[in-house]
Specification:
327 residues; 29% helix; MoaA_NifB_PqqE_Fe-S-bd_CS; twelve-stranded mixed beta sheet; cyclic pyranopterin monophosphate synthase activity; TIM Barrel; iron-sulfur
Length: 327
């Protein structure tokens, strides 16, 4: 399906829950989620799978499960099984903080998971504990090695670079891509909700990060790396992995955006930063036919904005936060 701006939309991110077992400073309030969704307030696994089947009929081929933290959703493996049965879907991926990943990894792969991304902003236990408000980095590292062992490739690590917090670890992260077949993606710090931790002074642009890495490691353009996101990748000369840069603030990637987003409570969004939503769950409750649901997907795709307005901040009128939309 091609949207109004000529972009092929073939990728859907599904937020399966707004709950999380961490409280990262830039993402979620310390006290947790105000008015968090209960079991009755979210789509069932069967409903999520059904809507994915409808999405496949309008051209969606790739799915990523997100949260919150998707692995806190009970029976997430069953949802992966359901989606893996949809012939048109050729890629099922997961973004996780990694805390619960290792004990579940084998079951997730057997269910049909193809790839996994880990969110990790520091390699130092104390700094990790600080940014996550109490998290333990050990199970995250164990999960990353387990993903490599199981061949859930490419295994990617998403690192939000924050000036004064982890910019002194840029080379440490890059070294992981040299020593191991890991794909490190440096993400510019961006406002993802009405939280006080965000400040423009903490932003380091991708260009600066790349320049710092190139003083240590020569970077070359690699062969294509499997994935559906906006990262620009470089191979570390002589290394096993790659370095990627996601630049939502300094160089918006909207011209190549190929995604829509489904929230846990059944709202469909064409853009992370737009407050415009289509209520699929309400349509389901009213007994909408497949054809009627297809029209709602097409409405979302056709109304997808030409670009985000992230440089203006999240905005209080955008009531949802990143953890409620799925990033």
């Amino acid at each position: 399906m091609v949207d109004s701006w000529g972009r092929e939309i073939n990728y859907m991110r599904i937020s399966v829950t707004d709950r999380c077992n961490l409280r990262c400073l830039y993402c979620m309030p310390e006290e947790g989620i105000e008015g968090k969704l209960n079991h009755q307030g979210i789509l069932s696994l069967e409903e999520l799978a059904y809507l994915t089947r409808i999405a496949a009929r309008v051209g969606i081929k790739k799915v990523r499960l997100t949260g919150g933290e998707p692995l806190v959703r009970r029976n997430i493996e069953k949802l992966i099984e359901y989606i893996a049965e949809i012939p048109e879907i050729d890629d099922i991926a997961l973004t996780t903080n990694g805390i619960k990943f290792k004990p579940m990894a084998d079951r997730l792969k057997k269910a049909g998971l193809k790839r996994v991304n880990f969110s990790l902003d520091s390699l130092q236990p104390e700094k990790f504990r600080y940014i996550t408000r109490g998290g333990d980095i050990r199970p995250v590292k164990e999960g990353i090695w387990e993903a490599l062992e199981l061949g859930l490739n490419p295994v990617k690590i998403n690192t939000v670079v924050i000036k004064g917090f982890n910019d002194d670890e840029i080379i440490d992260f890059a070294s992981l891509a040299y020593d191991y077949p890991l794909h490190i993606r440096f993400i510019e710090f961006m406002p993802v909700g009405d939280l006080l931790f965000w400040h423009e002074d903490k932003l380091i642009k991708s260009r600066e990060i790349k320049e710092k890495i190139e003083k240590k490691f020569p970077l070359t353009v690699p062969d294509k790396i499997t994935g559906n996101g906006p990262a620009k990748y470089f191979k570390i000369e002589g290394g096993q992995g790659s370095i990627g840069f996601i630049s939502p603030m300094s160089n918006h990637f909207c011209a190549a955006c190929n995604r829509i987003r489904l929230t846990a409570d059944g709202k469909l969004r064409g853009c992370l930063y737009s407050k415009e939503e289509v209520d699929l769950w309400e349509a389901l409750k009213k007994g909408a036919s497949d054809e009627e649901l297809i029209l709602l997907f097409l409405e979302t795709i056709n109304n997808k904005p030409v670009r985000h307005r992230m440089d203006a901040g999240w905005g209080r009128e955008n009531e949802r936060k990143m953890y409620q939309i799925g990033g």
